[in-house]
Amino acid sequence: MPWNETKPGLRFPAWSSPPIVVLVLSIVVCSVVAAGTIFYRLGLAQEALGGRQQEMTLWATFQLDRESRKMDDALRTWRNGDTPFEDVTTRLEILISRIDYLREGDFARSGAFRAREVALVGEIGPLIQQLEDQIGTLPAKPDRVAAVLDARHVVHEIEKLTAPLLNIVSQDGAEARSRIRADSEALFIALGLASFVLVAAVALALAAVLTQNATINLARRRAEAIGEELRRTAIAAQAASRAKATFLATMSHEIRTPMNGVLGAASLLGASQITQEQHRHVEMIAACGRALLALIDDILDFSKLEAGRTEFAISAFSPQDLLQAVADICAPMVRDRGLYFVAVVSPALAPELRSDPQRLRQVLVNLVSNAVKFTEDGSVLVILDLEPGADGRPWLHAIVADTGVGIGPEILGGLFHEFEQGDPAIGRRFGGTGLGLAICKRIVESLGGRIGVESEPGRGSRFWFRVPITTEHPPHQPMPRGPAFVQAPPGPLAPAMEALLRASGYTVTDTAAPDSLVLLHVSQIEHVMPRGARVIRFGPGAPLAPPVTAASLTLAVDGETTGPEPAPPAPILPPMRLLVAEDNAMNRDVMQQVLAAMGHDVELAADGADALERVQNGAPFDAVLLDLQMPVLDGISAARAIRALPPPAGRTLLLAVTANAMPSDRDACLAAGMNGFLAKPVTIARLTAALRELMLGLQPDEPAPPSSATIDTDHRQSLLAALRPGSLERLVMAFWEEIGLDIAALAPDVADAQERDERLHRLAGAAATLGYAQVSQAALAMRNATTPDIAPLLAALRAALAYDAALLPGTMRAAARTVLD
Amino acid sequence: MMSRRGLGTAAAALLLARPAHAALAPLHGPVVLTVDGKVAPDLTAGGALFDMQMLDALRQGRFYGETPWTRGKTEFTGPLLSAVLTAAGAKGKSLEMRALNDYLVTVPLADAFTWSVIIATRRDGSAMRIRDKGPLWVVYPMDSDSRLRNEAIYARCAWQLARITVS
To answer: Residue B162 pLDDT > 80, yes or no?
Structure first.
């Protein structure tokens, strides 16, 4: 099921975005509308200030009316002689100020006065003027009463106008007020509506934001949950991958140990007197065993690469040497199949490059082996060329092309995946683990490069890889060597030979010239070649035989034919004169027999002092094998003493041999001046390897981890092969007889630490020599115990002994049981 | 920090502590303004009486701007209300301003010491007749402060001012 169906929260629901836009838009629209409404209404309210004007008008009109009455009163009281005339003039002045105010004020302009008010005020004006005139002449009038009557008459005329004016203004004011009230109500309603709309819009927006927030939070939480899940899955996957790698490494190791036994036994069996038929069977066993070991090596290699534990050693190397080494390794199989093999290094490549030559060789050998395996007839070409990368830095471009069966597109894609082969049937037919290309891919990618293949069924394959390289030297331009011409069947062979010629300094031409070097394939009829041209035949069985490299081309041209190369001699250890210093008589016996079987001349010493004496005074030894724990003088002290001797005795090679394979022991040995370190049990193979390393001055190998089997059958087989018939039985019998004393002395209440240690040492050494791995380990564990309570360890040792005793043949088993009881 | 009004009140208290009224000159013309009520106790029962000459002798203020009752910019000049009150030895919280037409308005005394309120005696340089809303017209500096541009302040701008009663 697609994950977006199961996890809808990760994507925003389709509806969530448009409503947000709509909401925002609606809020904007609502705000504009509301603001517009409010401003419009405020404009009306501003107009309603006309209401204030109405009030002022009413007030002013009222004042006018009132002042008219006061005017009348003032005239009347003055006539009665109660007040001075100033009162009359003051009242007149005030009256004038009132009518002026009504006339000058903005009442008409502001609309507070309508036509009838303006008309009335216009009528009052002349009357007041008339009144002022009469009052002005009043004091001079002889008939004060009549004059006042006249003036009052005018005042009454004025009052007849001010009273209706007041009425009209009052009415207008009432109308205006009710209009304003209505306006206000409408304004309030509009404001209320606008506010409601705004609040609603804001609430909606808030709701939308909250919804969106919730959606985002939900999505984030889901994403976090998925992230957490992915992280856990990744951790689990890594753990699984690590477990797989560890399992592979362990299994490989566990398979390799008995496989070595099988191979060793097969080689011993092959060397014995057996029939031809039996020889064939032994060969089969050995071949299968080697195939199995190769498979295990591949698995181990792959699991190391997979786990990222492979270390890459970048060093300087010559591409010419690299390709020569590949050619040398692949030469036998190329010859076996009658193929032609050309290896070309482009002159564009510098003579010295930096990368990991071992790993590059591994990849090249793998690709070439594949090419050879899948090519029945034709040629295999390897070309190393320079290719500038995108950043201008140099890359090594390697091509392995063949004229083999080719690969169909349906399997081309999975070719570099582990455990996949071109065709399951091919795996059965040609063998191989299917890991080779996967290993190549990991190596190339670990080196920062890429690997690929182009192929079509029936048209051969072309594997290539590119890895970045560094180089400090400019490329060597080859010395110019004249024209050359290649005559070969159609296919990649001719271009490859031409490339090789160019790389060697020749100028390749389309036709042969009199001074040309002509390379003529064995399949080609010797055409009429120009007189003087040098013709060299190439191909299987020809003078220029595969593998063809720059070196072999030069050799062929310079007159020497390259015959079939002799197989490289197997590295054999020359007979040596050896001294074995070992306190345990039985171990001494085994060592002597094994080394003698290997063709060496062996002398024996019972302790370190004895060994020192022999090195000092006897004939010189090639090497001394020193057991570490010996009475009188232990191995370490003996080594120091030997090193203190004058040469040549002081320079004798020293090999430490011990069952106590702790790293600290190893360091102590090297510090004492020993040259090598061999962990027990001692097998022919390991002894040979240790001695070879000792002679070649190589670094001693890592001590082998103790085997987990109770009896090291591999070792037993080696012993059986090396010892005289009947010796092993005798040694085993002696072992079981001797340990009675040791076991008895090991009881916690009996032995002191010193004695127990010595007995355990002897027991561990003897057991390891005879292949009693578990007994040896139990004894060592007891020796190395840090706790004072050794009872459980002793019990373990006895259990191991009892287990092994049960495996003994009848009579011996009875004897061993007696010892243990 | 003291408010502006508070400052004015404090200043008023300080000024009123001086017997400034003692300098009131004798009358030379008709009385145009009477300040009575809580005024200096040594004054006659009728309160502090001012003729035009006396008002002209007090510290003058000026207003030039627009008012709701005039068209265009108008200049008013006359004694500061604070100067008049100080001269009368006024002591109280509010002023009852009465006009010739019996218009009555109550004004906080602090106004006089918060803003430069004047009792205008001249409009555009000329004395005002009663018919021109004179001879005295209370004018607030309403163009200098937006707080002074409202109905309540307009109502305090009594024209034809005749009497101030301090209480």
So the answer is: yes
The residues, any chain, with a CB within 8 Å of residue B57's CB and separated by 6 or more, are B25
> With an 8 Å Cβ cutoff, is B160 touching chain A?
yes
- Mean pLDDT value of segment B37-49: 78
CA–CA gap between residue A351 and residue A647 (Å, rounded)? 43
DSSP state of A787: S
| The pLDDT value given to residue B126 | 92
Q: Answer yes or no: do B130 and A63 touch at CB < 8 A.
A: no
Question: Is A63 close to B132, i.e. CB distance below 8 A?
Answer: no
At residue A479's C-alpha, the angle toward residues A342 and A488, to 5°, is: 30
Q: What is the pLDDT of residue A110?
A: 66
A601-605 sheet: strands from edge to edge: A601-605, A577-581, A623-627, A653-658, A676-679
**Does A358 lie at the interface with B, CB-CB under 8 angstroms?**
no
What is the spatial distance between Cα A154 and Cα A544, in angstroms, rounded to a whole number? 155
- Is residue B155 less than 8 Å (CB to CB) from chain A? no
* Chain A residues in contact with B130 (beta carbon < 8 A): 90, 93-94, 96-97
Instruction: State whether residue B24 sits within 8 Å of chain A by CB.
Output: no
The pTM of the full predicted model, rounded to 2 decimals, is 0.38
Alpha-carbon Rg for chain B in angstroms: 15
pLDDT profile of chain A (821 residues), mean per 10:
41 52 73 74 61 75 89 89 86 88 71 77 87 85 84 89 87 79 78 80 84 91 92 89 74 72 74 79 80 76 72 83 84 80 82 86 88 83 84 87 82 71 49 73 89 86 90 74 82 80 83 80 70 76 74 72 38 75 78 78 88 85 85 86 82 79 72 80 71 63 46 74 73 79 71 77 83 82 76 77 73 71 66
Query: From CA A437, how far away is CA A400, in angstroms rounded?
Result: 13
Phi, psi dihedrals of residue A155, rounded to the nearest 5°:
-60, -40
Farthest-apart Cα atoms in chain A, separation: 188
The 10 Å Cβ neighbour count of residue B150 is 10
- Among B71, B130, B151, beta carbon nearest to A97: B130
Structural domain harbouring B32: 4-166
Helices A727-746 and A713-722 pack at an angle, to 10 degrees, of 130
Alpha-carbon distance A388 to A52, whole Å? 95
Q: Enumerate the H helices of A468-607 as residue ranges.
A: 493-503, 550-557, 585-597
Total structural domains in chain B? 1
Answer positive or negative: Cα dihedral of A707, A709, A714, A716.
positive
Q: Does B123 touch chain A (CB under 8 A)?
A: no
Strand partners, A535: A518
Output the pLDDT for position B132: 87
Contact B132 A90 (CB under 8 A): no
Q: Is the Cβ pair A93, B130 closer than 8 Å?
A: yes
Per residue in B65-122, pLDDT (tens digit) is 888 888 788 999 999 999 999 988 888 899 999 999 888 999 999 999 988 999 999 9
The count of other CB atoms within 10 Å of the CB of residue A50 is 16
Which CATH number do you get for residue B59? 3.90.420.10
Residue B127 Cα, gap to closest chain A Cα (Å): 14
Whether residue A93 and residue B133 make contact (CB cut-off 8 A), yes or no, is no
Chain B residues close to A66, C-beta within 8 Å: 101
Sign of CA dihedral A329, A333, A336, A342: negative
Q: Which residues contact A280 (CB under 8 A, 6 or more apart)?
A: none
Q: What is the pLDDT of residue A336?
A: 80
How far apart, in whole angstroms, are the C-alpha atoms of residue A41 and residue A34?
Answer: 10
Determine the residue of chain B that is closest to A94 in CA distance: B131
176-195 of A, contacting B, C-beta below 8 A: none
Please tell me the total number of residues recorded for chain A in this structure.
821
B69 contacts in A (CB within 8 Å)? Answer: 101, 105
DSSP type of residue A702: P
